[in-house]
Amino acid sequence: MSTGLRLDGKIVIITGGASGIGAEAARLFTSHGAKVVIVDVQEELGQNVAVSIGEDKASFYRCDITKETEVENAVKFTVEKHGKLDVLFSNAGVLETVQGILDIDLEELDRTMAINVRGAAAFIKHAAREMVASGTRGSIVCTTSIAAEIGGPEFPGYTASKHALLGLVRSACGGLGKYGIRVNGVAPYAVSTGLTSKDEEAAKLLEDHYADKANLKGVVLKAHHVAQAALFLASDDSVYISGQNLAVDGGFTVVRP
């Protein structure tokens, strides 16, 4: 008989889990029966999220995802603590300074690619190795963006990184399908988080700006909406879905106003 818990008994790693979409996902996933390891460089925030959820459901592991040894150790920590790994939600990411291609800062581009692409690749690599070794038919979900599907005059480095991340998702889908491991992306429209807004006033201005541009009216995209889509992809409700990039954009990339 179904418990109604979509991740009952599942062990999950969430990168970038100290704030924004990651923190919302940590709360949502644990409410659906998962035990979560929150991975982030923001130690105080990450510890606070874990404590707010409860030590029996969530723990924090500090990890710089640009360093492969730290990534490998985060996966080892999870397996040693919980005995297995079922789901990776690779959500950590950065947004570059607003700039056009004529002014792109190549050092900032390197950092953006290191976190948004290389860090995700490292976590997919080591999480999938553990799933393959244990025979787990796991699920890997990456936070991409609508910027993985379309371009624009600003944020060329971020857009390039998200296009690359989507390519990584699709390639990993092809390589891991034979092991029963699914790999998907979740692609939000602009959403106000600590990554995009430094305070409540900035968040409101951003929400108003993008709500005006949005296709779907009457709803303002929030981090928890993205977490709900990630929950679907992480759970067995999407058991035959792999290699997809689920847009949470109210139709924006379809109609492109």
UniProtKB/TrEMBL annotation:
Entry protein name: Ketoreductase domain-containing protein
Annotated transmembrane regions: none
InterPro entries: KR_dom, NAD(P)-bd_dom_sf, Sc_DH/Rdtase_CS, SDR_fam
Tree of life domain: Eukaryota
Family that this chain belongs to: Belongs to the short-chain dehydrogenases/reductases (SDR) family.
Domain called Ketoreductase: residue spans: 10-189
Species lineage: Eukaryota, Viridiplantae, Streptophyta, Embryophyta, Tracheophyta
A Pfam family this chain is assigned to: adh_short_C2
